[in-house]
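cron nightly-structures :: item 1 of 1
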Amino acid sequence: MKNKNFFRKTILTSTLLTLLMVSFGTAYSQCGGGHDHSAGSSTKSVDNSTKGEVIYVCPMHSDVTSKTAGNCPKCGMALEKRIIKSSESVNANTKTETFGVNGNCGMCKKKIEGALTNKKGISSSEWNQETKQLTVTYNPDVIKIEKIHQLVADTGYDTDKIKAPDKAYNKLSGCCQYERK
């Protein structure tokens, strides 16, 4: 009886430890920082709850678009689904601007674009990791470009116009801390 209980406890403990190690290993499978560097994990600033035109865009090459799902011919990554609201495509007040934003990796891309997700007046954002340029489509009657710069800077990333607060920059993961000017 004593050996039977010991055996059960040993099996249960081993099973739990294995499950924990698998979970931990999955969460920390990238650089050990518990996050994902892949550009494919990016969040997009398009409100997917609204009906509109569906397009597919490469997360690394914003110039690669398609009306059907598939892979980017330049890098082979899966194209990500985007919904362009019908009101955006006909809105004369919609403006697109591109400006510099410092960053390093796919996680930076996710955070930079995430800073603008679901913000009133912003219909899309796309940060290019190679060029360090952020392209934002927005309605200037609803949100000013200075506010967009501030939203990005508040997450820790310097823009062409606004330097991120040191406190926000210091909270970035080590891999995301770019060389500041």
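cron nightly-structures :: done
The chain has a mean pLDDT of 77.
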